Amino acid sequence: MSALAGSPVDASAAAKARSEQVDLRREFDEVGIGEVLDQLDRELIGLKPVKTRIREIASLLLIERIRKRMNLTSDVPTLHMSFTGNPGTGKTTVALRIASILHKLGFVRRGQVVSVTRDELVGQYIGHTAPKTKEILKKAMGGVLFIDEAYYLHRPDNERDYGQEAIEILLQVMESQREDLVVILAGYGDRMDKFFASNPGFRSRIAHHIDFPDYADAELLAIAELMLRDMNYKFSPEAREAFVDYITLRKTQPLFSNARSIRNALDRMRLRQANRLVADLDRVLTVEDIMSLEASDVLASRVFRSKSAPELCQSDS
Amino acid sequence: MRVTQGCFSFLPDLTDGQITAQVQYCLEKGWAVNIEFTDDPHPRNTYWDMWGLPMFDLRDAAGILMELNECRKVYGDRYIRMSAFDSSHGWESVKLSFIVNRPKEEPGFRLERQEVGGRNIRYTTKSYAVDRPEGSRYGGK
User: Fold this and answer.
1) What is the ipTM of this complex?
2) What residues of A are in contact with residue B15 (Cβ under 8 Å)?
3) Would you tell me which of A88, B19, B77, B88 could form a disulfide with A258, CB atoms 3.0–4.6 Å apart?
4) pTM
């Protein structure tokens, strides 16, 4: 730590370091972020603007790392981020990747991600909040603290709410221990904007605001197929067509949460497929039978039935 | 007189960088680190007050340094030590302990001789610091 914090260097050493040349390619390969970025491209479908921002941040940090080694800078860059977007758009997944990039570049020492919500930070009685928040902060030291639905920390309607105390501790640590901890705040776009408006301290301490767009229909289908492949399932051609219709219909219904809804839908389809297979016990099954989801598994969904009464469809079914 | 107990106590006081390195070693071994403080320097005083709870499940020493600095703010005029507790089966005891903060002046100990029957003498040590009431030793209010 003390070595990183930029000890006074005599002029000759600084001059020597400046004349040194840097092989950017080797530097890039050495830290291994190329791998993480490729993985990000491969495993995350869509999210173009997010990927571009992450590449930008990664490049900035790579250069920052070289500058630090050449004694051109000694400051720790502010790395706190905010992720805004609708549910199920991959905010948590991206946070995990960011942590791994930061760890590889040496901007966080351990690279763990501690994911919390209001419940873990805010206490229930006077004097409960500070130890609770500090406990979480201590766990996250050397890594990334991911605060999901961060706007719940601030309750404007209750001025004696303990959330304010947690916010103050967070702000203080975000400022004074920038080299120890990276904080990522996540939540829905409009409510995060309100949250930042009422807590200007947060906005100014966060360097990178990343907005997560909703997925297009084709991307959702690709996500579904990727998920199925990971679970060793696949759609039959008819099922695939039915699922395209399912996505279009589901999107018009309330409580649609992008990739998460897709995952839930797939889980229910697996359930129906299992039911269908077990219904006929005398049949001899092939691997193909067990792996493929049929159109009937998709079409049995409540989404297709509730066209007339969408208000009844409260859950993801 | 400089109190020497626990690890490293014959060395010059550890810097924060050295404390961090020691604490990180403990964390990597999976030990829970505690911060304890006292103003009674007698070597037989094993029960020091704890600063907060033992810190389990941490990955990085920065969090513990944060607590230590808090503790120094309040009890900077007393002895503060770190102890590392190994909870694994069969050990369940403190594996490492070292002083991380000490009062500016340590007045030392006096030796008391008690003459008892048959020309025998009993010895006892007493810290000059404990002549004053708890909390106001070492220049505290």
Assistant:
1) 0.81
2) 2
3) A88
4) 0.80
